[in-house]
TrEMBL record:
InterPro entries: ArsR-like_HTH, AsnC-type_HTH_dom, Dimeric_a/b-barrel, Tscrpt_reg_AsnC-like, Tscrpt_reg_AsnC/Lrp_C, WH-like_DNA-bd_sf, WH_DNA-bd_sf. The lineage of its organism: Bacteria, Pseudomonadati, Pseudomonadota, Alphaproteobacteria, Rhodobacterales. It comes from Paracoccus spongiarum. Keywords: DNA-binding, Transcription, Transcription regulation. SMART domains: HTH_ASNC. This is Lrp/AsnC family transcriptional regulator.
């Protein structure tokens, strides 16, 4: 992993705010000329520091009014079970985040749906139907008080 200097961090902070900014505008914000800014961003991308640039969509405005965090415990911890669950996670668009965790559960999922019934359908008919899950704990999100993808650089 490359060492990030303060100029790299400045560029990354601005890109996290608005990745659609022109190279010239980004360079001005970071105190560079356009060519060095472009070269640095290109290097950060090639080095994998910048994974990709995406649009952040407002879930409610996209018709996804229900969100929940699920703690999932698997029946077995065999290589096959873990691989099958990981494949399931990768193919389900309703799962927007997944982390293998320590503690009493194996995974922590963030799931979105149009409504609470959609979340129930996902849990009961999609996830539990796999036959891999011992149990779940579901926490419905009432109100999101902070959401950011920006890392503190």
């Amino acid at each position: 992993m490359p060492d990030l200097d303060e100029t790299d961090r400045r560029l990354l902070r601005w890109l996290q705010r608005d990745s659609t900014m022109s190279t010239q505008a980004l360079a001005e914000k970071a105190g560079l000329s356009a060519s060095p800014a472009w070269r640095r961003v290109k290097r950060l991308t090639e080095d994998g520091v910048i994974r990709r640039q995406v649009a952040l969509v407002d879930p409610a405005r996209a018709g996804l009014h229900a969100m929940a965090y699920l703690q999932v415990s698997l029946l077995e911890h065999t290589e096959d079970s873990l691989a099958r669950f990981d494949r399931f996670v990768q193919t389900e668009d309703q799962i927007v985040e997944c982390a293998a965790i320590t503690g009493t559960s194996d995974y922590h999922l963030k799931v979105v749906a149009p409504d609470p019934e959609g979340l129930e359908h996902f849990i009961m008919r999609r996830m539990l139907a796999l036959g891999l899950v011992r149990g779940t704990v579901t926490n419905f999100v009432l109100r999101q008080t902070k959401y950011t993808t920006a890392l503190p650089l």
